[in-house]
């Protein structure tokens, strides 16, 4: 990609944009709304300049219509303004699925004139060079962010519109080549997941004797407590749903609570507990994970159900693998109920009624030993492929660096 940086002009984003806006939510938040106008926040922007729509929130139609700022249009650039993902950007192209949508107070919306190639400006902001200029305005601690002044920190390189168009086309040609490799890698992940499912089916499919989950518990099922997370650090940590989405406990995914009276409540995680996602997208609803952290280090949230196995009749890992099997996962998905199809949920009754394959403790331990060896190998291969997918994103950043590395710094 040939460039002549010396002939490019540079314009402050503040001067270039026709609008830079933030949105809002109704007083009291949006958790009670299951339909209306989609409201996007930082969690809906992915790391590849696109979007994640699996946990969409809504504001009432009347509220959205009354908003004077923050209505999303094709060609807009959305930017996370605070929190851990400050500086993340996404582009609203023609594939955006909503005719009407708004942003909340955690995003900036950048609208550009038709005199520039809007993708050109987006690619600059997504590049390492552009993102560094965005973060020049970062202030605050871990939960800090950028101010309305961020756009004065950004010098957008502006070659002629013909050069912008040609370079955007060249960038997207390179990205298409990278996407081919990335899609093949994602297919490998799907194949590895199918392989793991076949291993589980081979073990559990031949067990004819079954018992209701309710008869295999040491204590009754229990939902957790989510509370109202705060943005500052406290001694009380509540797990995020993402802590168990992969099926493996991730201790880095949590939020802080600042409430009295929680110490004595039966909402604290205990080593060996199984936590099942009772609410998520249909792909993830019902995902189980074994808690491997310290006792009383975390509270488990309302969107998880706690299972404690009666070790006299069933091994925890055996139960975990049984709950992970395709047949039982499909049973949970089939019975999940959701509002507007956005967040299917299962409840304790659905879990209690599950038919769990059972055999002697000795046979359970043998099955777990076989599964751990084979699934561990598949998990290692999956981790390697996921790392390769991550490198594909890095390759895209390298392409952008080759375009923008000569841009004038702030």
Question: How would you characterize this protein structure?
Answer:
The chain is of the alpha+beta class. Helices cover 34% and strands 15% of the residues. The chain has helices at 13-16, 61-66, 118-126, 128-135, 161-204, 316-324, 326-335, 348-352, 361-404; strands at 9-12, 19-22, 37-40, 57-59, 77-80, 89-91, 102-103, 107-111, 155-158, 210-212, 222-223, 236-239, 254-257, 274-277, 288-290, 304-307, 355-357.
Number of helices: 9
CATH topology of the largest domain: Adenine-n6-DNA-methyltransferase TaqI, Chain A, domain 2
Number of strands: 17
The assembly state of the depicted protein chains is: single chain
Biggest sheet, spatial arrangement of strands? 2-8-5-6
- Kindly name the structural category: alpha+beta
Helix content: 25-40%
Give the N-terminus to C-terminus distance in angstroms.
24 Å
CATH superfamily of the largest domain: DNA methylase specificity domains
Mean pLDDT: 91
Produce the secondary structure layout.
Layout: E1 9-12, H1 13-16, E2 19-22, E3 37-40, E4 57-59, H2 61-66, E5 77-80, E6 89-91, E7 102-103, E8 107-111, H3 118-126, H4 128-135, E9 155-158, H5 161-204, E10 210-212, E11 222-223, E12 236-239, E13 254-257, E14 274-277, E15 288-290, E16 304-307, H6 316-324, H7 326-335, H8 348-352, E17 355-357, H9 361-404
Parallel strand pairs: 3-7
Antiparallel strand pairs: 1-9, 2-8, 3-4, 5-6, 5-8, 10-17, 11-16, 12-13, 14-15, 14-16
């Amino acid at each position: 990609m040939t460039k002549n940086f010396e002939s490019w002009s540079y314009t402050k984003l503040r001067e270039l944009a026709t609008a830079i806006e933030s949105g809002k939510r109704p007083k009291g938040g949006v958790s009670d709304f299951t339909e209306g106008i989609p409201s996007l926040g930082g969690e809906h922007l992915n790391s590849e300049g696109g979007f994640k729509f699996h946990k969409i929130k809504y504001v009432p139609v009347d509220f959205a219509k009354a908003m004077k700022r923050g209505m999303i249009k094709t060609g807009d650039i959305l930017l996370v303004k605070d929190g851990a993902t400050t500086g993340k950007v996404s582009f609203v192209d023609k594939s955006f699925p909503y005719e009407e949508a708004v942003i909340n107070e955690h995003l900036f919306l950048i609208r550009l004139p038709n005199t520039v190639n809007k993708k050109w400006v987006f690619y600059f902001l997504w590049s390492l060079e552009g993102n560094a200029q965005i973060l020049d305005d970062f202030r605050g601690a871990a939960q800090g962010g950028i101010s309305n002044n961020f756009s004065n920190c950004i010098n957008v390189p502006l070659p002629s519109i013909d050069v912008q168009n040609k370079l955007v086309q060249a960038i997207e040609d390179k990205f298409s080549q990278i996407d081919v490799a990335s899609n093949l890698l994602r297919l490998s992940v799907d194949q590895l997941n199918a392989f793991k499912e076949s291993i589980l089916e081979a073990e559990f499919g031949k067990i004819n004797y079954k018992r209701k989950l309710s008869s295999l518990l040491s204590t009754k099922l229990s939902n957790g407590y989510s509370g109202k997370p705060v943005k500052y650090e406290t001694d009380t940590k509540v797990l995020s749903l993402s802590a168990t989405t992969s099926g493996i406990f991730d201790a880095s995914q949590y939020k802080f609570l600042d409430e009295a009276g929680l110490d004595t409540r039966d909402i604290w995680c205990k080593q060996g507990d199984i936590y099942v996602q009772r609410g998520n997208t249909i792909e993830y609803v019902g995902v189980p994970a074994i808690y491997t952290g310290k006792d009383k280090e975390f509270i488990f949230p309302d969107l998880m159900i706690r299972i404690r196995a009666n070790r006299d009749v069933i091994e925890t890992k055996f139960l975990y693998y049984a709950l992970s099997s395709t047949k039982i996962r499909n049973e949970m998905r089939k019975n999940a109920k959701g509002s507007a199809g956005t967040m299917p949920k299962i409840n304790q009754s659905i879990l209690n009624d599950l038919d769990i394959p059972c055999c002697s403790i000795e046979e359970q331990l043998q099955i777990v030993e076989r599964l751990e060896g084979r699934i561990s190998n598949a998990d290692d291969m999956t981790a390697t492929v996921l790392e390769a997918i991550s490198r594909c994103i890095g390759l895209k950043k390298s392409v952008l660096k080759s375009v923008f590395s000569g841009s004038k710094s702030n």
